[in-house]
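Table S2 (continued). Query chain:
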Amino acid sequence: MAGFDYDGSPHLYLSDPSGSYYEWKATAIGRNSKTVEEFLEKRYTDTVAASDEEVVRLAIRGLMEVVQSSAKNIEIAVLKKGKAMEMLDHETLEKIVGEIEKEKEEEAAKKKAEQEKLNK
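Corresponding output:
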C-alpha cells in the first residue's frame, strides 16, 4: 500500500498474511522479490529518491534483473501527491528499457576492458 501524509511525505507499506505490516522506502512483492529487494538495497539512495525519473529507472532496472529485458514484461505505476495514479505507457517503458540496456552494455564493455588490462 502506498500513499501520502497530509504534509506530502510518501509512505510505502507491505503487509503479510498474519496482518503484520512494515514500512519501506523501496520493496518488491511476488516471485523473485528477494532478488529485486537485494538490488534495491544496494542501489537505493536518498539522491535517487529525490528524482522522479531516477526512481522509475531504478524500479525498471530492478525488474529487469528478474524478467526478460523487454518493456512488454513490465508495468509501472507512478503515484504523486494530489494526482491520480499514472501507468507508464509502453513507448515510455520501451525508451527507458533501451537506455538501461545500453548502459548495461557499456558497463560490461568497461569491465571487460579493465579485466583485460589487469591480465596483461
